[in-house]
Amino acid sequence: QVQLVESGGGLVQAGGSLRLSCAASGRTFSSYFMGWFRQAPGKEREFVAAISRRGGTISYADSVKGRFTISRDNAKNTVYLQMNSLKPEDTAVYYCAADVKPGEVFTTEGKADYWGQGTTVTVSS
Question: CA angle at residue 95 from 111 to 77, to 5 degrees?
Fold first, then answer.
């Protein structure tokens, strides 16, 4: 069983920045593929970013490329999402997800094995 706990959400003005963190339980965090997804009000959950076990492979949704950066610290069992140049359309609940199966970086929620409870990001115009 893997537990994921997100933090760092909040209210920010457009153009501002936030850094989300996701702390994971378990001794084998370095073997998990990790990802961030988000769900805006009235919309389906969508992929944001994902990172491989050692951080060598990263994938981003087109909507966040150049503005968001995913990273991980395996010594701290934590994955981060640095969000810059935030826009009102980035407003959503952000979820951390883990894929513990062998394979590759995942970009679809169906491949996630574990989810965090979510942290809310609100960007005002």
Answer: 85
